[in-house]
Specification:
Structural class: alpha/beta
Strand order of the largest sheet: 3-4-2-1-5-6-7
Radius of gyration: 33 Å
Number of domains: 4
Shape: elongated
Oligomer: single chain
Strand content: 5-15%
Distance between the termini: 85 Å
Length: 588
């Protein structure tokens, strides 16, 4: 037999993506199995055990046989409930124990929406499913759909059918064929499942005539009325897909053949629906245009960064934008090669660089604010991509300024944001995990940047009234607007910027320090430096952080996050080095 050309789940996702909203789901007890929710028959058998115990009897391992022998008929769900609970409230409480978790079960993660429920809910929220038929009594599906931001219409009684909107106007309709566990009229026994009321039959005739069908977790063996409703629909507008963990029962095979359906063998409902969701969304994404505006790119990042299942797409979003910036800057560089560059022209060149990186800078700000440990490395990689620039004048200070400018803007944007969000491991990652390479070596960003050269060079190209720290003053202005959403107050932004630069100096000094000559090089000095020296020390960020360290000691959050090796002694040594160097600086 020739091998199938297409994975059946991929084939289904293609059909689902191309025909949004035209497939109805039919879900059985198999979908709730991993949630430890009992089937209707399992509830019936347990009720029989309770009844036998109440009568002082032992139904052994065959409750159904004991019931038949004792009462002369098939187990009747309604009669069992009436025997065990005199009032509707008592019967309701009896049923809750089967479907609502105890504290212990909640700790175990039982009786809550499964991966399958959540995947279905996300597909509902995206508009792929509008009609869901289920034989389950539980409310896990409804809970998952509501958590996804959609309020479903739930039909579980004949009265609900009469009062519902037409299917075509439903955002999401969950039809509980056998009822809800809080309603004692639920259908459970063979007799109860043999016939539906007229209103339900008419509704099912409409669903099976107007929608395709995807079946999961339903055996098709016991539900005579449901089989009949599917069987009497003669139209074949859309396909039927029947998923099964093992070989379907004879009743199911007969139904599938008459419907012209396709069997999809699956490992379980959780994996199947997760794959279906992932593949459908991937197809949708492949057809969607690449985000062309900064707003669209940021919205996409916020969606992708929240969940591990979007990790590949988040990587591609940031990687692609970094490559776009790399290409744009290379084009700018190509345009200025071959003729002399005046210092007066350089600010405009840098402005063009920054304009080309507008979207990436915004992605850095929002991404670093919402980043998780699993996504931190993406931002280091992006800086490496951007700094991979062709030389303009090999070996000169001018080359280093051009090559590293956008990377420095990204470092400041991401660094201030990460410090403000308390994400110190991300801050360290930007400085240490970001690797820059020149003709001689590969080194962490903290060591690869020639801070003294950049600072000296910046005095000639960044016009500012304050000549003490021109590079710092320029960065303070350059990243202000992208960070305004998270730091709207100007004074708060000022403090956070200074905190970042002081932390930057400490971390660079820590990386540069050598046992033989710890004072040889300590790192860059930003605006915080002249504030600490020329203004009252008590009001500077240096004084604020010194006070924090004195008060908290080893519990200072950056140390708790592992910066400076988590060593208070190492931090104190570096802090002393920086403080001594600050005191020796001459501000003009």
């Amino acid at each position: 037999m020739a091998k199938a050309l297409l994975d059946p789940v991929v084939g289904l996702s293609l059909s689902l993506q191309a025909n949004r909203g035209i497939y109805a789901l039919l879900l059985g007890s198999g979908v709730s199995r991993t949630a430890r929710i009992p089937t209707g028959w399992e509830v019936t058998l347990d009720l029989i055990r309770k009844l036998a115990t109440a009568q002082g009897k032992d139904c052994a391992n065959d409750p159904a046989s004991w019931y038949r022998k004792t009462f002369g008929g098939e187990p009747d769900y309604s009669d069992l409930l009436k025997s065990l609970g005199e009032t509707p409230e008592e019967r309701s409480q009896l049923l809750k124990a089967y479907f609502e978790p105890t504290d212990e079960e909640r700790e175990q993660g039982w009786k809550k929406p499964t991966q399958a429920h959540h995947a279905v809910a996300r597909l509902v929220a995206a508009g792929y499913f509008r009609i869901i038929l289920t034989t389950n009594f539980d409310r896990l599906l409804e809970r998952a759909i509501e958590e996804a931001g959609v309020t479903p219409t739930v039909i579980s009684t004949p009265e609900a059918i009469a009062g519902s909107l037409p299917l075509i106007h439903q955002r999401c309709c969950v039809i509980k064929l056998h009822g809800d566990y809080l309603d004692t009229r639920i259908k459970n026994t063979v007799q109860e499942l043999s016939k539906y009321d007229r209103g339900m039959d008419r509704l099912l005739d409409k669903v099976f005539d107007e929608f395709g069908l995807i079946v999961c977790g339903w055996s098709g063996v016991w539900d005579t009325a449901l089989r009949g409703a599917i069987d009497r629909c003669k139209s074949r507008r859309f396909s039927t897909f029947w998923t099964s963990v093992s070989s379907p029962a004879k009743e199911a095979i007969d139904l599938i053949q008459r419907r012209g359906g396709q069997i999809i063998h699956i490992a379980g409902a959780d994996l199947f629906f997760q794959q279906l969701q992932d593949k459908t969304e991937a197809l949708e994404a492949s057809l969607a245009p690449h985000p062309v505006t900064t707003t669209a790119a940021v919205a996409t990042l916020k969606k992708f960064i929240a969940e591990d299942r979007y990790s590949v797409r988040l990587h591609d979003l940031i990687f692609d934008e970094a490559e776009n910036v790399h290409s744009a800057i290379s084009a700018i560089n190509k345009g200025i090669l071959g003729h002399g560059i005046k210092n007066s022209e350089i600010p405009n060149i840098y402005n063009n660089y920054r304009q080309a990186a507008t979207t990436l800078i915004e992605l850095f700000v929002h991404g670093c604010f919402w980043s998780r440990p699993e996504t931190d490395s993406l931002f280091s990689t992006a800086i490496q991509q951007v700094c991979r620039q062709p030389t303009i004048q090999s070996g000169s200070v001018l080359h280093e300024g051009f090559a590293h400018y956008v990377g420095l803007v990204l470092l400041y944007a991401g660094g201030v944001t990460s410090i403000g969000a308390g994400k110190f491991k991300l801050f360290e990652s930007l400085l240490i995990q970001t690797k820059l390479r020149d003709q001689r070596r590969t080194a962490p960003l903290a060591l690869a940047l020639s801070w003294s050269s950049l600072t000296d060079f910046s005095k000639t190209i960044f016009p500012t009234e304050r000549k003490w720290t021109p590079l710092s003053e320029h960065m303070f202005i350059a990243i202000r607007e992208p960070l305004r959403q998270y730091f709207p107050d100007d004074a708060e932004y000022d403090d956070m910027f200074d905190r970042f630069e002081y932390m930057l100096a400490l971390l660079v000094a820590d990386q540069r320090s050598k046992p033989s000559s710890p004072l040889a090089f300590w790192g860059p000095v930003g605006r915080f430096g002249w504030k600490a020296v020329r203004r009252a020390y008590e009001g500077s960020i240096v004084a604020v952080i010194d006070s924090e360290i004195k008060s908290l000691g080893a519990d200072w959050p950056p140390l708790q996050a592992g910066l400076f090796g988590g060593s208070l002694d190492r931090l104190e040594s570096v802090r002393t080095t920086v403080s001594d160097a600050l005191a020796k600086l001459q501000w003009y």
